[in-house]
């Protein structure tokens, strides 16, 4: 019984019984008073139920309270006064007030006795409701002149063991002759009144007549031996015999009354009638709901759980006491009738707390009376959480951006996951903040992906994952690198330009790269320094170095150009390239366009011959100087190749690289030098596509 959680449910608010679930003993909480519990009703039965919760089961039970003789008979009137005519015939019966005893059955009043005397005896009679009352019987004629009054003691005895008793004094006055006693028109009056009758309502009118005249024929009416309840409920008009309500009757309290009415004339003679008053039930009591058990909260995902056990009662009778119970139709609950006006409220299906965490249920109980009365009882049922939902990320795929060269432990973003459960079932194991543990390098790693998991603290633990893609943003952290001409500290490369070059002649092209991306890798070129400003220019977008004007004999032979290579980052980074340009006469002259023939001269004079000889000598010296310069340059490159493994073409500029358009050499292809240090790796340089210049025709 302890495992099944057995308990006692009693009718009413007072718990008279208790159950020891360990032994099954049924105990009373306090001393029971049968008269207080049931009054005159016999047998006295207390109804109760034994409720088993696991599983739900209800047993009906009754406890009968047996009466003991713990009350003595009591007369409501301690002195009874009778006026009896002296000529009353023998055997005349005179009714007396009966005694009251709260006990029932054999413990109630069973017998009456009268003190010894020579004129009267006593009879014990029984009413229709089982109560016994006394009547005084005249055994010997009275003589007022001899004995005008008598005093007797009336004793009421109950049937207990030992018997209890109560006494009253009977005072008899012997009066002169009054020939006729009052007589009622009906010995029994039967009346029905509804229980909702108002105070002062007329119940009935009794009437008696007396054949005597004068004072002996004047009649007054009164209640005869009324109980305390009747005295409070009814009153009689002594002159008219009208019986009216002093207080409202209640069918649920008393269903009927037996009232005795006495009519007494002026001479002291009296007559008696009986009023049988039947109280008619009116639907004046709404149904009552008594909650015996309520389970809240209840776990989700569990079908057919008993939520509540309650009983319904209506003290009215007939259809007025019949009830119908219901709940709202849009709820996932069912009402199931159980034993004797008991109902169980159960779940219709498995409930989902995430869809609805609380239900407000209204139990509506309506009776079948007219008008119908109803009672509503509200209960709130909470749904407890079960860990049935994994954390859900707000996005299945996150994209985060972080600029390279970040500081370690930098917060790069956050992911967020929510759990529709509650309490610990909704608490996730991480806060969703993401940090970069080390500095990132865009040139080494442009993007990477990883999974982020979120787990709750429920049991069992549930988890989910989201994909995070991190894009590394480029920072301008790489300066431009000049591929050509090489700036490695070795002997500089010298570009040869014929003095006959036209403006826009391509001298060389500065080639540079930038390890960054986007606008950080957009390069621009400008001439930073020049031996003779205005002679050479650099195209800003491709790094081509071209002559800006025609060359003259006054221009210096050697020129040093410093070209600035700058990226488009913020702030911008730059590098410089140093070029050496040598102006030469006659370089590629055989392939230059022939000048127009001059007009023939009349004759060669000696001055012309001298000039030709001088020019030939100078040309020879210049050619020798050029050959020596080329030889020295090739020797230096051979030594550099042995030290830095500098790879150069095996032959000098091919003779077929001719500027047929008149814009200079290197017009159709470019020659590059790539130097590698001893520990260089393959991934430390990039190969560039050749840029084919597009010159105007």
Automatic annotation (TrEMBL):
Subcellular location, principal: membrane
Keywords, comma-separated and alphabetical: Calcium, Cell adhesion, Cell membrane, Glycoprotein, Membrane, Metal-binding, Repeat, Signal, Transmembrane, Transmembrane helix
Gene Ontology biological process terms from the UniProt entry: homophilic cell adhesion via plasma membrane adhesion molecules; nervous system development
Pfam families: Cadherin, Cadherin_2, Cadherin_C_2
Compartments where found: Cell membrane
Signal peptide: none
Domain Cadherin: 76-184, 185-289, 290-393, 394-482, 497-592
InterPro entries per record: Cadherin-like_dom, Cadherin-like_sf, Cadherin_C, Cadherin_CS, Cadherin_N, Protocadherin/Cadherin-CA
A GO CC term attached to the entry: plasma membrane
Membrane topology category: Single-pass type I membrane protein
Residue ranges of the TM segments: 609-632
Domain of life: Eukaryota
CDD domains xrefs: Cadherin_repeat
GO molecular function: calcium ion binding
Gene3D superfamilies: Cadherins
Record protein name field: Cadherin domain-containing protein
């Amino acid at each position: 019984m302890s495992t099944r959680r057995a308990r006692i449910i009693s009718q009413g608010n007072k718990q008279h019984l208790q159950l020891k679930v360990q032994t099954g003993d049924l105990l009373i909480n306090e001393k029971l008073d049968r008269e207080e519990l049931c009054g005159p009703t016999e047998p006295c039965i207390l109804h109760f139920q034994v409720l088993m919760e696991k599983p739900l089961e209800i047993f009906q039970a009754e406890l009968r309270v047996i009466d003991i003789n713990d009350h003595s008979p009591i007369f409501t009137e301690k002195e009874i006064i009778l006026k009896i005519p002296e000529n009353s015939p023998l055997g005349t019966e005179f009714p007396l007030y009966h005694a009251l005893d709260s006990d029932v059955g054999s413990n109630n009043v069973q017998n009456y006795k009268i003190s010894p005397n020579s004129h009267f005896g006593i009879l014990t009679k029984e009413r229709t409701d089982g109560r016994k009352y006394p009547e005084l019987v005249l055994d010997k004629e009275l003589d007022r002149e001899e004995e005008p009054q008598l005093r007797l003691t009336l004793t009421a005895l109950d049937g207990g063991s030992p018997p209890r008793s109560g006494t009253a004094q009977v005072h008899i006055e012997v009066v002169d002759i009054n020939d006729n006693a009052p007589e009622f028109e009906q010995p029994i009056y039967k009346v029905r009144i509804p229980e909702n009758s108002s105070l002062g309502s007329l119940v009935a009118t009794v009437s008696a007549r007396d054949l005597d005249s004068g004072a002996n024929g004047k009649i007054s009416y009164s209640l005869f031996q009324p109980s305390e309840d009747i005295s409070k409920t009814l009153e009689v008009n002594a002159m008219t015999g009208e019986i009216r309500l002093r207080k409202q009757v209640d069918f649920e309290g008393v269903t009927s009354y037996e009232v005795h009415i006495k009519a007494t004339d002026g001479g002291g003679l009296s007559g008696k009638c009986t009023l049988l008053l039947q109280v008619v039930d009116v639907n004046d009591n709404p149904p009552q709901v008594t909650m015996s058990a309520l389970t809240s909260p209840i776990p989700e995902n569990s079908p057919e759980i008993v939520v509540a056990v309650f009983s319904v009662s209506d003290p009215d009778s007939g259809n007025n006491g019949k009830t119908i119970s219901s709940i709202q139709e849009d709820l996932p609950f069912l009402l199931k009738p159980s034993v004797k006006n008991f109902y169980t409220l159960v779940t219709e299906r498995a409930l989902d707390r995430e869809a609805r965490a609380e239900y407000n249920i209204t139990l509506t109980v309506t009776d079948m009376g007219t008008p119908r009365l109803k009672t509503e009882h509200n209960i709130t049922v909470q749904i407890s959480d079960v860990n049935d939902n994994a954390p859900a990320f707000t996005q299945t795929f996150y994209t985060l951006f972080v600029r390279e060269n970040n500081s370690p432990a930098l917060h790069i973003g956050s992911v967020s996951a929510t759990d529709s459960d509650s309490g610990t079932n909704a608490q996730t194991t991480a806060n969703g903040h993401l940090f970069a543990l080390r500095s990132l390098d865009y040139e080494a790693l442009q993007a990477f992906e990883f999974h982020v998991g979120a787990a709750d603290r429920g049991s069992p633990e549930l988890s989910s994952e989201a994909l995070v893609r991190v894009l590394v943003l480029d920072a301008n952290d790489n300066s431009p690198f000049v591929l050509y001409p090489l700036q490695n500290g070795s002997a500089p490369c010298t570009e040869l330009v014929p003095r006959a070059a036209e403006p826009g002649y391509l001298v060389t092209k500065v080639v540079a790269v930038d390890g960054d991306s986007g606008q950080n890798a957009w390069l621009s070129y400008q001439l930073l320094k020049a031996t003779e400003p205005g002679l050479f220019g650099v195209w800003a977008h491709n790094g081509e170095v071209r002559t800006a004007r025609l060359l003259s004999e006054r221009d210096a032979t050697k020129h040093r150009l410093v070209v600035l290579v700058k990226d488009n980052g913020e702030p911008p980074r730059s590098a410089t390239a140093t070029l050496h340009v040598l102006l030469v006469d006659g370089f590629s002259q055989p392939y230059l366009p022939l000048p127009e023939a001059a007009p023939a001269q009349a004759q060669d004079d000696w001055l012309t011959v001298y000039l030709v000889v001088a020019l030939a000598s100078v040309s020879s010296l210049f050619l020798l100087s050029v050959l020596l310069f080329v030889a020295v340059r090739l020797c230096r490159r051979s030594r550099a190749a042995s030290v830095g493994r500098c790879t150069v073409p095996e032959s000098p500029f091919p003779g077929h690289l001719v500027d047929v358009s008149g814009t200079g050499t290197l017009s159709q292809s470019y020659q590059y030098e790539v130097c590698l240090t001893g520990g260089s790796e393959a991934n430390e340089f990039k190969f560039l596509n050749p840029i084919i210049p597009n010159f105007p025709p």
